[in-house]
Prior knowledge:
The protein is an alpha+beta fold. It is built from 4 helices and 5 strands. It has helices spanning about 15-45, 65-75, 95-105, 105-115, and strands spanning about 5, 10, 55-60, 80-85, 90-95. A 3-stranded antiparallel β-sheet has the order 3-5-4. It has a two-stranded antiparallel sheet with strand order 1-2. A hairpin with a 2-residue loop joins strand 4 and strand 5. Helix 2 crosses helix 4. The two termini are about 20 Å apart.
Amino acid sequence: KWRMDRVDGEYRFGALEAAAFVRYLGWLAMEVVKSNLDVARRVLDPKLPISPRIVEFEATAQKPVGQVTLGNSITLTPGTLTLDLHEGVLTVHALTEASARDLMSGEMDRRVAELRTD
Length: 118
């Protein structure tokens, strides 16, 4: 049975969690804008390099809702695409070495883990 105040029948989404989620959405929106500008520049200026690569890393979040949030956030960011999520390991295509490096820095993973989706 689903209720407005519960996820997976055990987790309450309270005011603190809602505030953290709103902060995360603000940060994610800025990342989307920055990535959009970067990808647009690379499309318009053929001199700018692309160096596509596939990277894998393990999500900090242990429960599926946190892992899916991370995978979806990666896919929303232009220049990156989550290809697979299996047993907490994400496989991601990155358009450039810089975007792969940013992803591997763990900043997005850390921010998703702070949402307390577990």
